[in-house]
């Protein structure tokens, strides 16, 4: 208890210093609620947060319940106090539960004073809870949530039921007006898109039957049906996204996709868009209170989009003003929101024509600016300081240019504001690398003829950002504009050998300057010095590359040296027989084969086959990791051609992929040759459409992550890593060949974010399970715990059917610690003839190759390193009855989005039904999923709820049935199933007793069949199938 009280005291101290910190308020409330007998402290904690910040129903509902229990329900002052609390709560965030409670309170209190058993309404209440007052109050509450497409029915239905009750109890005198009111209420509702439009129409039909003339029924229903049509169409267009929201448990990313789809429409629907933003903001605020990563960032993004949408929709200024006040209460640390607030005040104030009115607006904006800084949140982030400072300085500049204020009075204020913003940025690590405030201040000085001050801005910046090419190029440009050529040349001479983030930009600026203003001698001197500097830079880069390569090699050698060497007994192997390799995975020969011994016949010494010792596979021809650069900060609408043109002098580009993120446009550019990368990296800080882009090695912003909990999926990893920066992508491995693979690649938009996320390395997400996080350097793959899984596993062929799992464990444990033995067995428990042995260490698997040709159970076994294609082939070696069985529990998926990840799709499906195996065919945008049972396949095909994947509704069809597209990656109907079994193919006649061997190149006559055979050209052969699996 003492520790809890101390923690509570510490939190109160922190809140006194940081009252606008949401996380501190959330901790304060939770801690107070966890302590017994601290009701007053809970009340204080709940009341404290709304004093500084907007709060959700997790704060307001407990507060209102406590207030309802305390107020005197019969005095107007107490009731108005409670109602004002409701109003404050509903002004913060849209909450259907809160609005429902408000409605219930109003209706219940009204019912106490009406009806046969009603008690007299106290005179002290005035007209509060009278029928007219109640009707108006109910309507105001319902209108606050009427735009919620799926849950507004909870409010409107309550209002309708109350109105119908009033109508039934009304006198004949009042009934006519009430009938018109209820009728209009129904028609207005039918115009609006909502999920239960059918029920609303049925309610109108019942109302018309009971309260309208019989002869008018049909015409009224026809007119209502026409009115309803527009609302139904509007909801149908959005039903897919509403289902996606529900399926994703109202994930913020799905909200962002929903909003983006609404804003892409030719005409914005204010009714839907405003409500959608309110819902998204409320959900983001809820997740922020629960301290989910990135919820604050997403909440700010939603508010910015909402405010921009209101401006575009040209809503009433009073509505827009109230929304700005709500926004700064919700996200007081957002400089973008405060900046828009300042511009709104400037925009909506009537034309300033007098000095007095100009002073008033200036005072208002100054108050907003000061209030933003009082939160002490803006000062901690450059990206919040800059927009706020620019908005305030921009207003000051426009006041001066419009002649409203005297330049001598306003210019010093403007300069002081910008210098203050620059000072705040400089106090933060890294400052503002884009130098936005410095550029603005220098341009102000230049505009008003203070050229020396403009140069002084860049002189001061050069001391802070010594290695930034941007500072020095702006510095020299300022000197050149003011015709201080000697000074500019002197700066170039001083800095051309220094190390910058982009030295080529400095050299190009110097060369251009000398060509324009230099003598012949000065031009040649410049070129000579640039050439020398370029040589030194290239030399330094080569040395750095060699050093990095050496360090990687040294780390790999140390890792190998750390493996313990065990002296294990090794079975005797005839060296003379071990030299001849055995083709375990040989392709079927087209020439006549020789005699073959029986499966269990003891082989003669001459017939022994030897397994081939496989070397590690050579590097892939497509070295994607080493041949790709990542390009960020691209302008909107950038094209592949613009990027190819940027990198055209670096080497041949293989592929460009452009991706639009919520706050950035990024791309990956892959080259054919690895040698193109150094030249490509020099394009960092270059410009496309006058916008500076960032270029870095793709792997530097990519993390290799493994050893996470088995239930972890894509949303889990995005939440875990999202707090460190903007995520570009998460790539999941296919589980087609090994269902136990548990790793992924997390790619950020910047290497800085990736470096920050390395702090997760070693964190225990579950007891005894430490997360492994590495930068995905292709030269350091040895550090990955899954990349060499095949090198730790051996494939054993030629086993006797009497071999037991224990026999294999006994034999192969002599080479090292065995992690797992997987032996294929028949239904009767006998071995199928092959198995996989997985070791803990790669060296043990290499040692186990010595068991090749070892005699086990009177059979010579073949031992090679495991190959996923071998597993795929053996998995297919099943009888024809099994083909039909696999087909019966398989489902074909159509309508996949381009570039679908198998691992990601499998995660989505596994939340619905157990998945045994999945294979995606990108060329057809289809996939086939093998489930555990035919019953699972049937349930999936009969599923009524849509399956949403990356915004697409997936279509399901029964695998192998008419109407389902045949998969082109498999042979023609002779295979027919999900994964092609070798035995299902047409085989050659067996030679021997009762059989005649077919001549080479001939085909035995096929039996007549009712099912026409597809031509062989329509499918792919075993070679193509292996290539696909490989």
Biggest β-sheet, characterized? 4 strands, antiparallel
The chain-level structural class is alpha+beta
Silhouette: globular
Determine the number of helices (DSSP H or I, runs of at least 4 residues).
Answer: 37
What distance separates the N and C termini? 62 Å
- Count of distinct strands: 24
Output the CATH topology of the domain at 628-775: Alpha-Beta Plaits
Strand arrangement in the largest pleated sheet: 2-3-1-6
CATH architecture of the domain at 628-775: 2-Layer Sandwich
CATH class descriptor name of the domain at 628-775: Alpha Beta
Low-confidence stretches: 351-357, 561-620, 782-786, 869-879, 962-1022, 1025-1030
Assigned CATH superfamily of the domain at 628-775 = RRM (RNA recognition motif) domain
Secondary structure: helix percent: 40-55%
What's the Cα radius of gyration? 37 Å
Strand content: 5-15%
* Overall mean pLDDT: 81
GO molecular function: RNA binding
Domain RRM: 627-700, 701-778, 792-868
Keywords: mRNA processing, mRNA splicing, Nucleus, Repeat, RNA-binding
Biased composition (Polar residues): 1010-1020
